[in-house]
Amino acid sequence: MKLITDRTFPTMVFAAICATVLIACVCNVFGQDNSLGQKLYFGVKPLVGANMAAIREQSTAGTGLKLWGYSVKSTRTGPDKGKTFTGVMVGNSPLSTNGTTTTTVYVVPLVFNIAGISFDPTVADHNCLGGKVPLTVLKQSPMVLTHDFTLNGVNVGTGQYSDAFQRANFWTKVSQNGGSYNNNLKYVFLPAISITPNSSHSVLFSVSGSLCITSYGGVEINWFDNLITTKIIPSLKAKGVGPTNLPVFMLYNTTMYNTIPIHCCIGGYHGAFGSPAQTYSPFQFDTVGVFGVGSEDTDIMAHEVNEWQDDPLGTNATPPWGKVGQVTGCQNNLEVGDPVTGKNVHNVTMNGFTYHLQELAFFSWFFGPPSTGAGAKFSDNGTFTSAQGACNGQ
Question: Where are the chain's structural domains?
């Protein structure tokens, strides 16, 4: 992989998710076996009709997200070897910039009322969290607060997980430039919004066995996405939500499904719409452990926020990759969480809670060697020791 330049200016439709790259269709639903092996999927809803010239102007003018642009020549095996790919990421460039940027993230807790049960992240959870309030647990996490991170044996400094990952992602350049690069997120917590979907847009999944609750919420993703983009986000404009920042939506012990409940489960996604582009991301905050490793507490938030950071518009193309993580076929986007779903970095214990953070793929994994990442690896906990090869079927 050869990074050619960095330019500081700093595909998926929801209606038919199973026919696109948002998720693969899953034909299992929570049942009487308590679904401990249930697989969780993650998605992206790319910006439609992206005008990159306008996006550059909006970034520079401060009317859109602060973005930097890259150009990279792939060194990966396959027909795209030597091909140049371009894209954008959030903040300043870690390739030549020591400065710190800060992007505001608005956290909106969602209270889902489904079939008489309230899934409310703002009240104490005595069943699964020992009386802790889920939203408070999130506020005290390494997604929001800082922690001293060592990734692949390299101390990349103190920061939020998203900042630590991005530093590790381009560690060769960051360390050469003195290590003072940071891409910080300023979290602002907004009041909870209560949602009561009707039975055609929601479901109660049954959870049995030794788990801490017996029912888990489910909401239909297409209806939910329309609600977010046409109603909720516009209603938050007066509180500061807009194209220069990221609103995220916390779903507590509630998952998403596509059209019908058997097409389950989607733990989170990030998307973009409009001009200037408004980015956003709903994510599931699970305290039950139904989905196993890679889906607990802040796992899904880590997946989605870091994918937004490295592919904010959902339009960053890569050579085809796949047959790994959640991907059974081949896809060609810079989604750093998808290839390592089900795997974590080391757990972080802070403020009386042990947090889970999903492992993430480095930029070099998508485009080829040599690695620009910490420890010369290709993911931030060493699962990938080499770049992706040609995806079968290329």
Answer: 2-376
From the number of C-beta atoms within 10 Å of its C-beta (0-12, 13-18, 19+), residue 394 rates as: middle
Q: In what order do the strands lie in the sheet with 2-9?
A: 2-9, 67-73, 84-90
293 — pLDDT class (breaks 50, 70, 90): confident
Q: Which residues pair with 302 in a beta bridge?
A: none
Helix (H) or strand (E) holding 268: strand 264-273
Query: Which DSSP category does 239 fall into?
Result: G
Q: Tokens 């042990």 — which residue?
A: 354
| Neighbouring C-beta atoms of residue 328, cutoff 10 Å | 10
> Which pLDDT score, from 0 to 100, does residue 9 have?
35
Distance from C-alpha of 201 to C-alpha of 255, rounded to nearest angstrom: 12
In three-state form (DSSP H/G/I as H, E/B as E, the rest C), the secondary structure along 290-328 is CCCCCCECCHHHHHHHHHHHHCCCCCCEEEEEEEECCEE
pTM of the model: 0.92
